[in-house]
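Appendix B, record 7
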Amino acid sequence: MKTKVIVLGAGLIGKPLAIDLVKDEDFEITIADKSRLQLESIEEANLQKKHLDLRESYELKKLLQPFDLVVNAVPGFMGYDTLKTVIEAGKDCVDIAFYPEDVFSLSQLAKEKGVRVISDMGVAPGMSNLLAGFAASKMDEIEKVDIFVGGLPVVRKLPWEYKAVFSPSDVIEEYTRPARLVENGQIVIKAPLTEIELLEFEDVGTLEAFNSDGLRSLMFTLKARDMREKTLRYPGYAQKIKLLAENGFFDTEKLDFNGQAVSPLEMTSRLLFKQWKLEEGEEDLTVMKVVVEGKKAGKTLRYVFDLLDRYDTETKTHSMARTTAYAASQAVRLMVSGLHTQKGIVVPEQMGENEKIVDFMLSGLAERKVIYKTSIDKE
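Structure tokens (predicted):
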């Protein structure tokens, strides 16, 4: 009997995720969204579609009843509430919605409902956490975790030299939310877009890295002396965004514009959406480096994981969508494989302690040409 899966959200991540899963004969896939236009853009013959405002919790619970497993791929602003509804409905879930709330606050509810939730299962957070957790499990003492990640257009166009595969509001959230890092074993808070450094990446060149709030659960699950996550962009980008932030363009307090109450953030998001939209056929790339350093039996041990992924010209799928969506679709396969059985909320670094799960995830991604290179240095 086929496993019935429903993908909530038909956006830039939910759509390729559902298309990837529908190719698997073991699944029966449905995708749901409030946008008829988004649903109509999906041409896969075997993919069922449901039109619903997913913020309507009562209607969503009814919709979920026939399904075995749910993928939460809604925008970040509604991600937490949607996950809570899914758990209340008693459904297992792979969650890739990027929201500021603490997912572990739903842990008790998930256990009471007897459901499994894999949270933050994209590329970063997601695979970055899984690989960091895997490397950390091989060490007696974790000294440093560095994560550098970014999605970039292949063709650089001024003034931004950037295009977004996520909604501008979610991207701007990265630039306004205080960045939490770990220094000397303590969580510290720093302004986003700060501590800019230039790094060299093979086949890409020089990129700038700046503080962002991407460690997420790693701050609480890994006991490392120092940890940081930095966003990668082409050089000069952070200063342009800081100019907007420091001059009120991201303020959320509504102002009166000819009788209409509109916040600067709403206006800025709308303007940037046009400029940042990654058009169909426009090529992008995803760069990520995860470095974990520590001690094993008193000797230095260093793991480095590198990802360089590009737009797929055959399937016409953007790289950031591929690397994020396929991590989540492989997690769906993991759910039904029997390898992951733990009830409650689980984050990827916890799964990284199981080498069979890590191999399952990496091999599935490699089949989709998302390839992580691993190097290990020992003292």
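Remarks on this record: The mean pLDDT is 94. Residues 127-319 form a domain with the Dihydrodipicolinate Reductase; domain 2 fold (CATH 3.30.360.10).
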